[in-house]
C-alpha cells in the first residue's frame, strides 16, 4: 500500500526529517488560499501513487495567483498512470544547489534490508542504477541490529556526496531507515533530497510503501491507501480479500494460488484465447470468498466465459463447490457460461456437489481449451 | 532416499488446535507422517487427533523427541512462533502461514542461519517425500514415489505439475514448496544442491515465476554445480510488466530482469529446457529419464 506524498511527508516530518512547508488542497480555491498563506513562489504537485509525475506535467512552479489558477486548472482531473488527480500539494518552492537520492528497501536476493544513497537525485533513479550502478552507495543491514551510523556514512561517502553535507545526509538516511523499520515499509525513498546553498538538507519528495501484511500494526496509517479507487472492481475484490488484476481479454479467470492462476492465463494465451483478469482467491478460501470472486468476474462487461480452476491443498473442494452454488443461486440464467476444474483436497466431494449449470472438465489444459472455445463463440 | 524428510521424521504441529492445524494434522497422520505433538500456548494438556498438545515447543520436543515443526499460526503471531521453533533445536521448520510481514521474516531468516536450522517458507505448501512423509498442506493423493525431485515457489502450481508427472508415470523423490514471498528460508539453490546430493533423485523439475532474480541465480548454480538434469517451468509469461500478480514477490519490473522471458533465457542458456505447458514439462522429464 502506497501513501500519498503529503501523508508520507507528515510521517517523515514527525520523525525529524526537514520537509518544505506545505499543505494539501482538493480544489482550486483551497489551493489559492494555501499558496497565498505560504507566499509565492510555490510548487503545485499532483498527488498520485505513481512515479513520473513531473514528466507528465503533474508538478509546476508558480509565482502568481494567475499562474496558480492556470496550473490548478490543468492538474486537477489529470490522469497519471491510471489515477485521476483529486488532491494537490501546495508547497514552498525550495531552491536547490544539489539534488540527492536516498532509499531503503528489502534486498530479496540477500534476504536483508539495504540502504542506498546517490549524488544523482531528482532523476529516474532506476536508470542511474542500471547504467551507472557504481554511482549508488549501498549498505546491507542486519535486521536484528538495525542500521549503524557508520553504515549510513559508508553509503553516503561511497556515493561521492560532498563531505560538507555528508554527515547531515547520513543522519537523514538513519532516520529514513528508522521510519522504514517502524512503519513496516517495503520501500521508503526521498528523491530528491535537496541541499540548499546554505547547506540545509530538505526532503522535497517522499515515498512510503507499506507492507500490506503488516497493516495490523500500523492502524493510524492503514486508511491512507493512495492506490484505492472507490467503486472499482479492483477495490471490491480487495475488500473481499482477493488478489485481482484486470486485463483486457474475454476469459474471466478465478483460481487459487498466484503461480497456478498465472499459468492458467499463460495457457489461455497459448491456446489462442485472451484472459480478462487475474483473480487469486488465496489459500484456504471459504464459500463466501469464492462467491465474492465469481461476483467480481460476472460484473466485468468484457467477460464472456468464466474459467474456475482450483487445485486444493489448504483450499477444500467441497467449500469451493458450495461457494459456486451460493454465487449461482442469485441468477435465473447465468450471465456467462462457467467452466469448472476442481482437483486436490476434497475435489471429488466438490464435483459431486456442483449443479448442472456449470460445465466441469477434469484436466487443466482441457478446461482452458474449452473456455477459450466458448469465448470464441464455440458450441455451448 | 529423499531430501529434508523421511519416514522417521518426528513432527510437532504449532497451531494444532486451530481449524487449519487440526484438518491438516489429520491429513498428515492419514498419510503416515509421525505427527508426535502439538504446541499451542495455553492449550497444553489437550489431545487433538490423538496427539498430545503442549504449551511450549521446547516441552513438546523434550517429551516427544520431535525434530521438525510445521507452523499453522496466524500471520500476526507467526514470526514469534517461528522464533520459538528456532529456539527448540529442530532440524527443519516449515512455515505454512500466508501473509507474514516481510520484516518479521528477514529477522526470522537471520536467526535460522544462526542456529543452523532449515527454514521452509513462509507461504509455502510444505514438503513431501511420497510414500514416506508429508509436512504441510500438499494433497497427498497426487504424489507417487519415484525419482524426480520437484522444487517450486508456488503451492498449487506444484500440485498441477506433479499431477502431470504422476500421470506420465514419473514419480517423485521429494517435492519441496519454497514459498512465494519476497523472503523465504530455503531457496532454489539450497533445494537444487540437496537434490544433486541425493542418490535417489535422477532428474529435477524447477518451477519458478515472474519477480525477483532467484531463477536467474539458480540457473547459474545449475550450470556450475549440477550433473542431475533439470527441467524448468516459469509462470507469468503473459503477465503485464510492472503489475503485481498475487504473490508478494510476483511482480515483473520493467527493467528486463524478473520477467518470465529473462528467466527462461537464463535457464535455457544454462542447458535447462523449459516447458511451455505442464504437459510439456512432463514430456521433457520423460525424455531425460534413463528408461
UniProtKB/TrEMBL annotation, chain A:
Keywords: ATP-binding, Ligase, Magnesium, Metal-binding, Nucleotide-binding, Tricarboxylic acid cycle. One of its GO terms (molecular function) is succinate-CoA ligase (ADP-forming) activity. ATP binds at residues 45, 52-54, 91, 94, 99. It comes from the Archaea. Residues 9-221 form the ATP-grasp domain. Its EC number is 6.2.1.5. PROSITE patterns: ATP_GRASP (PS50975), SUCCINYL_COA_LIG_3 (PS01217). It is an enzyme of class 6 (ligase). Substrate binds at residues 256, 313-315. Binds 1 Mg(2+) ion per subunit. Its cofactor is Mg(2+). Pathway: Carbohydrate metabolism; tricarboxylic acid cycle; succinate from succinyl-CoA (ligase route): step 1/1. The keyword ATP-binding applies. It catalyses: succinate + ATP + CoA = succinyl-CoA + ADP + phosphate; GTP + succinate + CoA = succinyl-CoA + GDP + phosphate. One of its GO terms (biological process) is succinyl-CoA metabolic process. Mg(2+) binds at residues 191, 205. Pfam families: ATP-grasp_2, Ligase_CoA. Belongs to the succinate/malate CoA ligase beta subunit family. Succinyl-CoA synthetase functions in the citric acid cycle (TCA), coupling the hydrolysis of succinyl-CoA to the synthesis of either ATP or GTP and thus represents the only step of substrate-level phosphorylation in the TCA. The beta subunit provides nucleotide specificity of the enzyme and binds the substrate succinate, while the binding sites for coenzyme A and phosphate are found in the alpha subunit. Heterotetramer of two alpha and two beta subunits. This is Succinate--CoA ligase [ADP-forming] subunit beta. It comes from Halodesulfurarchaeum formicicum. The lineage of its organism: Archaea, Methanobacteriati, Methanobacteriota, Stenosarchaea group, Halobacteria. The gene is sucC.
UniProtKB/TrEMBL annotation, chain B:
It catalyses: GTP + succinate + CoA = succinyl-CoA + GDP + phosphate; succinate + ATP + CoA = succinyl-CoA + ADP + phosphate; acetate + ATP + CoA = acetyl-CoA + ADP + phosphate. CoA binds at residues 17-20, 43, 96-98. It is an enzyme of class 6 (ligase). Gene3D superfamilies: NAD(P)-binding Rossmann-like Domain (3.40.50.720), Succinyl-CoA synthetase domains (3.40.50.261). Keywords: Ligase, Nucleotide-binding, Tricarboxylic acid cycle. It holds the Pfam family CoA_binding. PROSITE patterns: SUCCINYL_COA_LIG_1, SUCCINYL_COA_LIG_2. GO terms for biological process: tricarboxylic acid cycle. Pathway: Carbohydrate metabolism; tricarboxylic acid cycle; succinate from succinyl-CoA (ligase route): step 1/1. GO terms for cellular component: succinate-CoA ligase complex (ADP-forming). The active site is at residue 247. GO terms for molecular function: acetate-CoA ligase (ADP-forming) activity; nucleotide binding; succinate-CoA ligase (ADP-forming) activity; succinate-CoA ligase (GDP-forming) activity. Its EC number is 6.2.1.5. InterPro entries: Cit_synth/succinyl-CoA_lig_AS, Citrt_syn/SCS-alpha_CS, CoA-bd, CoA_lig_alpha, NAD(P)-bd_dom_sf, SUCC_ACL_C, Succinyl-CoA_synth-like. Substrate binds at residue 159. It comes from the Archaea. Residues 4-100 form the CoA-binding domain. Belongs to the succinate/malate CoA ligase alpha subunit family. Heterotetramer of two alpha and two beta subunits. Succinyl-CoA synthetase functions in the citric acid cycle (TCA), coupling the hydrolysis of succinyl-CoA to the synthesis of either ATP or GTP and thus represents the only step of substrate-level phosphorylation in the TCA. The alpha subunit of the enzyme binds the substrates coenzyme A and phosphate, while succinate binding and nucleotide specificity is provided by the beta subunit. This is Succinate--CoA ligase [ADP-forming] subunit alpha. It comes from Halodesulfurarchaeum formicicum. The gene is sucD.
Amino acid at each position: 500500500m502506497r501513501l500519498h506524498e503529503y501523508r508520507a511527508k507528515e510521517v517523515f516530518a514527525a520523525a525529524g526529517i526537514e520537509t518544505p512547508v506545505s499543505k494539501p488542497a482538493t480544489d482550486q480555491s483551497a489551493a489559492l488560499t494555501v499558496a497565498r498563506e505560504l507566499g509565492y513562489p510555490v510548487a503545485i504537485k499532483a498527488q498520485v501513487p505513481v512515479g513520473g509525475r513531473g514528466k507528465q506535467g503533474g508538478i509546476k512552479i508558480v509565482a502568481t495567483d494567475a499562474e496558480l489558477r492556470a496550473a490548478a486548472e490543468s492538474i486537477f482531473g489529470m490522469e497519471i498512470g491510471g489515477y485521476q488527480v483529486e488532491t494537490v500539494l501546495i508547497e514552498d518552492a525550495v531552491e536547490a544547489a544539489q539534488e540527492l537520492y536516498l532509499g531503503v528497501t528489502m534486498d530479496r536476493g540477500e534476504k536483508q534490508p539495504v540502504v542506498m544513497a546517490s549524488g544523482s537525485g531528482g532523476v529516474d533513479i532506476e536508470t542511474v542504477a542500471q547504467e551507472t550502478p557504481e554511482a549508488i552507495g549501498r549498505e546491507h543491514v542486519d535486521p536484528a541490529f538495525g542500521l549503524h551510523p557508520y553504515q549510513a556514512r559508508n553509503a553516503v561517502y561511497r556515493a561521492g556526496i560532498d563531505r560538507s553535507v555528508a554527515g547531515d545526509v547520513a543522519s537523514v538516511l538513519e532516520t529514513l531507515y528508522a521510519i522504514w523499520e517502524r512503519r513496516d515499509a517495503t520501500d521508503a525513498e526521498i528523491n530528491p533530497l535537496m541541499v540548499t546553498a546554505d547547506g540545509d538538507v530538505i526532503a522535497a519528495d517522499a515515498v512510503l510503501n507499506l507492507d500490506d501484511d503488516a497493516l495490523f500494526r500500523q492502524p493510524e496509517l492503514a486508511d491512507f491507501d493512495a492506490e484505492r479507487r472507490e467503486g472499482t472492481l479492483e477495490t471490491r475484490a480487495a475488500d473481499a480479500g482477493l488478489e485481482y488484476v484486470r486485463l483486457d481479454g474475454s476469459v474471466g479467470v478465478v483460481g487459487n494460488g498466484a503461480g497456478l492462476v498465472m499459468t492458467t492465463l499463460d495457457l489461455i494465451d497459448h491456446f489462442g484465447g485472451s484472459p480478462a483478469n487475474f483473480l487469486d482467491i488465496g489459500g484456504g478460501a471459504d464459500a463466501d470468498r469464492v462467491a465474492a470472486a465469481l461476483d467480481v468476474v460476472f460484473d466485468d462487461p468484457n467477460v464472456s466465459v468464466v474459467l474456475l480452476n482450483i487445485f486444493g491443498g489448504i483450499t477444500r473442494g467441497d467449500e469451493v463447490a458450495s461457494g459456486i452454488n451460493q454465487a449461482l443461486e442469485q441468477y435465473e440464467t447465468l450471465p456467462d457460461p462457467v467452466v469448472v476444474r476442481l482437483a486436490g483436497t476434497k475435489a471429488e466431494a466438490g464435483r459431486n456437489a456442483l449443479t448442472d449449470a456449470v460445465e466441469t472438465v477434469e484436466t487443466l489444459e482441457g478446461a482452458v481449451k474449452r473456455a477459450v472455445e466458448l469465448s470464441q463463440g464455440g458450441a455451448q | 532416499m529423499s531430501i529434508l524428510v523421511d519416514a522417521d521424521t518426528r513432527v510437532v504441529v504449532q497451531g494444532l488446535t486451530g481449524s487449519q492445524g487440526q484438518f491438516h494434522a489429520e491429513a498428515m497422520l492419514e498419510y503416515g507422517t509421525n505427527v508426535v505433538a502439538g504446541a499451542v500456548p495455553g492449550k497444553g494438556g489437550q489431545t487433538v487427533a490423538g496427539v498430545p498438545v503442549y504449551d511450549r515447543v521446547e516441552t513438546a520436543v523434550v517429551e516427544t523427541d520431535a525434530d521438525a515443526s510445521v507452523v499453522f499460526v496466524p500471520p500476526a503471531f507467526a514470526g514469534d512462533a517461528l522464533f520459538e521453533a528456532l529456539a527448540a533445536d529442530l532440524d527443519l521448520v516449515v512455515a505454512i502461514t500466508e501473509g507474514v510481514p516481510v520484516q518479521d521474516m528477514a529477522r526470522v531468516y537471520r536467526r535460522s542461519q544462526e542456529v543452523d536450522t532449515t527454514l521452509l517458507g513462509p507461504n509455502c505448501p510444505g514438503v513431501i517425500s511420497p510414500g514416506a512423509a508429508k509436512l504441510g498442506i500438499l494433497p497427498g493423493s497426487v504424489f507417487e514415489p519415484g525419482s524426480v525431485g520437484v522444487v517450486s515457489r508456488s503451492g498449487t502450481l506444484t500440485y498441477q505439475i506433479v499431477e502431470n508427472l504422476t500421470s506420465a508415470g514419473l514419480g517423485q523423490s521429494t517435492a519441496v514448496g519454497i514459498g512465494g514471498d519476497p523472503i523465504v528460508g530455503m531457496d532454489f539453490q539450497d533445494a537444487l544442491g540437496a537434490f544433486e546430493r541425493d542418490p535417489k533423485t535422477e532428474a529435477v523439475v524447477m518451477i519458478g515465476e515472474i519477480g525477483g532474480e532467484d531463477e536467474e541465480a539458480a540457473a547459474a548454480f545449475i550450470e556450475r554445480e549440477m550433473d542431475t538434469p533439470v527441467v524448468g517451468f516459469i509462470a507469468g509469461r503473459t503477465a503485464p510488466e510492472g503489475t503485481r500478480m498475487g504473490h508478494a514477490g510476483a511482480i515483473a519490473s520493467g527493467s528486463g530482469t524478473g520477467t518470465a522471458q529473462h528467466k527462461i533465457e537464463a535457464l535455457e542458456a544454462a542447458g535447462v529446457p523449459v516447458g511451455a505447458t505442464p504437459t510439456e514439462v512432463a514430456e521433457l522429464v520423460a525424455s531425460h529419464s534413463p528408461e
